[in-house]
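Same chain as my last thread, 340 residues:
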Amino acid sequence: MVVRAIDWSDDGEAVRILDQRALPGREVYRDLRTVDDVYDAIRTLAVRGAPAIGIAAAMGVALAIDGSESCDTDAELKVRSAVDQLRSARPTAVNLAWALDRVRRVAVGFRGDSTELRRLLAAEATRIRDEDRAMCRRIGEHGATLIPNGARVLTHCNTGALATGGIGTALAAIYAAVEQGKRVEVYADETRPLLQGSRLTAWELERAGIPVTVLVDGAAASLMRRGTVDLCIVGADRIAVNGGVANKIGTYPLAIAARHHDVPFYVAAPTSTFDPSTPNGGDIAIEQRDPDEVRCGFGTLTAPADVGVYNPAFDVTPAELITAIVSDRGVHRPPYGFEC
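reply #2:
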């Protein structure tokens, strides 16, 4: 069964998330009832994955309106403040800004009471969630055409239901292929330093009954050299007009290794991840994370306490290393040109 990582709470007054910091050891659901709660959950990776943080942020804006605002202006100012705060939580994933811009437009020029505005904001956030679910399904259907029966698939980070409102992006293709009766075996990069591959992808695929093997990131190239990888498929946090892709750190060397070993390298993402304002991948701003994620990320010191750390959350894979990009609109092959 595919997990649902983000939704409204039963009373509709909070954003309910599966806290991904606790996985795989514990399955903990949290109700986020304030904008600050949502901001903290996104910043600390309790909720993560480009589509999922966009959905969470959109829902979070609705929480800014509690029905006590004295006039339309007060409510609109609260929406603007919430949007600005949530936008700053994570800078690289374009879905965050895209979703926030959508809910912000609901409040522009609004005339009515604050209770109605909250309802409209929540309705728009729900539409974003539902659209993402539908996009995930279409990504899966298109991506499954690239996965032959018996395929051994290498992936990086987590790109499944935990990262989206639906069944995922790259993992959606795997889920859809399995639904079609294909045999698929997955190799999941550990994904250092926060181990989204081993903690999340392996947990999710085991839960779905799909064979999965975890490997340390540095072993991916040697696995390809052995001839035991048929294709790579990863997700994306931002895709530039020319097809350059920002994804979890470690994706770029994976693409280089795949090119050297003649292994197809695919990227899967919804159209909400395509950024028409970014001409090429080199223009994408890369988030730098807390050095302690490397020095003592899980509570144990693994490097000198004061050593310098380079900890980018993402790297950029140039378009020329990508065999094809799968979106909800189909399979796109080079040369890329995603103007809209």
